[in-house]
Design a protein that fits this description.
This protein is α+β, with helices and mostly antiparallel strands. The chain has five helices and six strands, in the order H-E-E-E-E-E-E-H-H-H-H.
Length: 165
């Protein structure tokens, strides 16, 4: 990877790499949304790695660039975020070197314009950095225990009464 590792420089090189891929490998494919362009959203450092969401006309991916070289030949790598564990696949492009990507959406025909795709990418980053909703439920076990302690008839169970509040 080239020497300049600032967040903006990395995002610019990644966008350039995927614009080239769009021209060379993805030109004319049926899954491309012509209303979208290549953009990197939310470029930042996170736990010693560069993190961002890559929007292209054909996909939206969470992308990680490790500080060290990405191992070649590895099929999947898992990374933990506040919201959970995610599987990434390795890739390599001359402009950026080795990287890891986690598919979020493909194809992207639900977006009529770049603004909608960008807003979705920003929301995905916010969700990625938030603890899962299950954690909030675990913080209040007394509610769940009281529901399960109440006697439940077979008729109540079959009518969905197991999860009543």
């Amino acid at each position: 990877m080239p020497a300049d590792r600032s967040d903006q420089a990395i995002a610019a090189r990644m966008a350039d790499a995927f614009r080239r891929i769009g021209r060379e490998r993805m030109a004319g494919i049926a899954v491309s949304n012509p209303a979208l362009e290549v953009e990197v959203v939310g470029a930042r450092r996170w736990q010693g790695r560069w993190l961002g969401i890559l929007i292209t006309p054909w996909c939206m991916n969470l992308v990680l660039l490790p500080d060290e070289e990405t191992p070649a030949g590895q099929e999947r790598v898992f990374h933990r975020f506040p919201s959970g564990d995610y599987a990434f696949l390795p890739g390599c492009e001359p402009e950026i070197g080795g990287y890891l990507s986690c598919a979020l959406l493909s194809p992207l025909f639900q977006f009529a314009a770049q603004d909608g795709a960008r807003a979705t990418a920003e929301a995905a980053l916010a969700a990625l950095m938030s603890p899962p909703l299950a954690t909030a439920a675990q913080d209040k076990p007394e509610r769940h225990e009281s529901v399960l302690r109440a006697p439940l008839s077979r008729r109540g169970f079959l009518a969905g009464g197991l999860f009543r509040s």
